[in-house]
Amino acid sequence: MAEANTKAEHFVGLDLGGTKILAGVFDHSLECIGSAKLSTKSQRGVDKVVERIARCIQDAVDEADLSMKQVAGVGLGAPGAVDYDSGTVIFAPNLEGWKDVPLKKDLEKLLGVPVFVENDCNIAALGVYVAELKSKPRSMIGIFIGTGIGAGLIIDGELFSGFSHTAGEIGHMVVEVSGPKCGCGNKGCFEALASRTAIFQQIKAGVKDGQKTMLTEMLGDSLEDLRSGDLRKAIRRGDKFVDRVVESAAEYIGIATANIVNVLNPEVVVLGGGVIEALADEMMGVIVETAADYAMPGTMKGVEIVASKLGDNAGITGGAVLAKRATK
Amino acid sequence: MAEANTKAEHFVGLDLGGTKILAGVFDHSLECIGSAKLSTKSQRGVDKVVERIARCIQDAVDEADLSMKQVAGVGLGAPGAVDYDSGTVIFAPNLEGWKDVPLKKDLEKLLGVPVFVENDCNIAALGVYVAELKSKPRSMIGIFIGTGIGAGLIIDGELFSGFSHTAGEIGHMVVEVSGPKCGCGNKGCFEALASRTAIFQQIKAGVKDGQKTMLTEMLGDSLEDLRSGDLRKAIRRGDKFVDRVVESAAEYIGIATANIVNVLNPEVVVLGGGVIEALADEMMGVIVETAADYAMPGTMKGVEIVASKLGDNAGITGGAVLAKRATK
Fold it and tell me: What pTM does this model have?
């Protein structure tokens, strides 16, 4: 035991988000034995965020009663376009000033261990695939619904990231040409209809229009600190307005799922991300039913649509999987 | 040469459509050396159509001055859901009574050579990939716009048909939830907005509403014999109404292409089928421009969007490719 602990046989997964940084230390059987969390503070600049990432990793390693010498590698998911080979974050819309950041190189200098950088949805899909589904299905699509919406594709047992490593931008699949404006400039993107941002906007617009909801009693009229969990509480207390907004989002998630099943016919579709983590009981029934309505006859046969149980840990778990595979 | 001709080193590709059957004989370099065409006449029943398929193949082989003994295999594309392993057509919506037809078995009995059955869009994509793109890109999506709309996916150099062999049903990807009714029962499917059927419906509805178009001068008020080529003629003579309808369809094709590029980020998107064959000059500019507008920044970088030059021959070429690969 003492001998094993001096070997570099642990893996760190790190999930870099727009608001928080999450790190987890995993053993070779992919069990999480320590974790740490820091806020991102991207307004302080790229270099400061890179330092915070390094610190978060060191904190998690210390939390697991290990030293960096016992870490074989770090796998990191970044919220944007990533060049895997060079480990560069090409562009991350939710991180201030992140353009062509050589994250792999910078972190390897700070930490002294190999670092592997991937897109955050790719890495979360990999985590779900390996740790939750035990790599059993041949193909799997992970759809992650949070502030934005993204996907990771597993095809023939491997992460598929496309020609220029940008596959999975399902949030910008148009499902309603004449729909609401999306942050990307187009109209009717999936993300503009069913992300947490879209759901919150619809609720705030409804309140402005005089809709009655318990949320204003819970949080005040401005709904400033609204979180997905508040929606769940309101629905469970019988709030019809919130229920309607969440159901509509679930229908769009069902339609987008059917689109994916029609085009790719994967063995499993896994839904994850903060919105699903908070509202799985409220949304999954509608999602599965709507997907079945919109999929072509036959295409849904035997296809599973499930909510991930990894929740917020999908990213760090996938990071550890990536590090384990890459250092083998 | 005489010796080579007695060997079974030719391949037959067959494209089974709702209205016509097309067969082509190919040499080992995938050059077409003889072809034949028959109408399908699916109203005569499944057995008669199977006989017609066999006859069309024999006609093409005879046309190429060969005998069946010189054919190594037949690759066949059927318009519907196919079980490749058993060679059964599970369901073909445009062929009367086609449900669980053991096409491979029946044809092998009639022809005495190995027969391989695939979905028609898969086979057309394979034909374009191998014969037109020389298998160079790692990933390619072939989108075929005709009476309906379907796609074939090449991923990592191989045909990808998904978990239950139904991948590529891009025609039933919803792009406008509140859009026109589709034959499948849902609303706003890509096929209900941009297929030949959809374009013709829009033109006929416009004429009923009093829209002026040269098409009524060319074909009479009922527009009974309307073909895609007539649209091209009308547009080239300055018909604004037809131009508008075709441009709108091209925009939807562009949006669907962007959806696919966002999700799969393939190296090449090839557009084919009767509508593109007849109207490539009129549509491709709008398609490429709209796709670029709707794709996420970066995802379209280096991705090619091109019209297939194989036209109606994509299916028979792909059939020959399939037979060649399967008999190797």
Answer: 0.93
